[in-house]
Amino acid sequence: MTYPLLVLPFVLVTAVVTALSARRPRFAARMAASGVAAVVLLALTAVFDNVMIALDLFTYPPEHLSGLRIGLAPVEDFAYPLCAAFGVPAVFALLRRTEPAT
Question: Per the database entry, which stretches of residues form a coiled coil (predicted)?
Fold first, then answer.
């Protein structure tokens, strides 16, 4: 199970960064927008990963996967768009200056 272990640090960093951004303004709105983005990205991942795998553009060694799949796509593939949907806005919120420059 190599791929689940490879995904784990990305998920953990995303969770920590998102939690740290909770004290920044508009957290609830950011999470709502991230949720919508996550649904869209997950749907696109489901469609296009399945198409690419069906066309044999790439394969995964089964011994490195968890065994859980959505269609032909391993569930591990869905962690990256989820991390992007929540992690990127959280990083931007943390990098944004909260007080006006003098």
Answer: none
**In contact, 87 and 21? CB cutoff 8 Å:** no
Query: Alpha-carbon distance 44 to 41, whole Å?
Result: 5
Q: What is the pTM of this model?
A: 0.85
pLDDT digit string, tens, across residues 35-52? 999 999 999 999 999 999
Q: What is the pLDDT of residues 47-72, one digit of tens each?
A: 999 999 999 998 888 888 888 999 99
Are the C-beta atoms of 12 and 37 separated by less than 8 Å? no
Take residue 59 and report the two structure tokens written for it: 């394969």
Sequence spans of domains, the chain: 30-95
